[in-house]
């Protein structure tokens, strides 16, 4: 099992210190993921920037959760699934949505299920989707904008999920009660 250093403000490279201070201010703590990303200031900055850009897309809280958790579960991220479970709770997303995503079961809402399906297609097929698959996504009211926004969310999740796999990032105490593993899904 690999591990990478989880930096604090004191141990981080100079270029990451202000970014970690901002993380501390925004989250009330420095999430372990941010501590690991701090090892390369540009990566932490990219992650924080993409996160802000993705949260400012056309997606509402439920849709953000669907995109994030669909990717987190598909990538089997031991850190991000619990973290985004806690985030969904803070955003007041229905627990039934979160549980369906964590368990890889279809969502009851057809529009959210179409978003989950398109997110999975883009993730699994590395962006190769058919016109028929796009048309099914558009049929429930989504547009080309949302296809591109999924790619933005996927960009954020590739940074976090892949980093957590390599770093074996410890799950932060506030998220531990939402522990998850791919083996428990389905």
Indicate the topology.
Blueprint: H1 14-27, H2 32-37, H3 41-55, H4 61-74, H5 80-90, H6 95-103, H7 110-124, H8 131-139, H9 144-167
Helix pairs in contact: 1-3, 3-9, 4-5, 4-6, 4-7, 4-9, 7-8, 7-9
Query: Which outline best applies?
Result: globular
How would you state the average pLDDT, rounded? 96
- Care to count the β-strands? 0
What is the CATH homology-level superfamily of one domain?
AhpD-like
Q: What is the name of the CATH class of one domain?
A: Mainly Alpha
Helix vs. strand class? mainly alpha
CATH topology of one domain: AhpD-like
- Kindly report how far apart the N and C termini lie: 25 Å
Q: Spans of 5+ residues with little confidence (pLDDT < 50)?
A: none
CATH architecture descriptor name of one domain: Up-down Bundle
Strand/helix succession: HHHHHHHHH
Number of helices: 9
Helical content (DSSP H or I, runs of 4+): 55-70%
- Main sheet: strands, sense, barrel: none
C-alpha-based Rg, rounded: 16 Å
């Amino acid at each position: 099992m690999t591990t990478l250093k989880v930096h604090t403000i004191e141990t981080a490279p100079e270029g990451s210190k202000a970014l970690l201070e901002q993380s501390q201010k925004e989250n009330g703590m420095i999430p372990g993921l941010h501590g690991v990303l701090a090892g390369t200031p540009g990566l932490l900055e990219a992650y924080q920037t993409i996160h802000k850009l993705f949260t400012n897309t056309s997606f509402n809280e439920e849709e953000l959760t669907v995109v994030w958790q669909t990717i987190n579960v598909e990538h089997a991220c031991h850190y991000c699934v619990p973290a985004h479970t806690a985030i969904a709770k803070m955003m007041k997303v229905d627990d039934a949505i979160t549980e369906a995503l964590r368990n890889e079961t279809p969502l009851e809402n057809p529009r959210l299920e179409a978003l989950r399906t398109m997110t999975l297609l883009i993730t699994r097929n590395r962006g190769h989707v058919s016109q028929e698959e796009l048309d099914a996504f558009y049929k429930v009211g989504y547009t080309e904008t949302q296809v591109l926004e999924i790619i933005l969310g996927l960009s954020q999740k590739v940074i976090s999920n892949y980093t957590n796999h390599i770093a074996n990032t410890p799950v932060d105490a506030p998220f531990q009660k939402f522990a998850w593993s791919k083996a428990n899904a389905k």
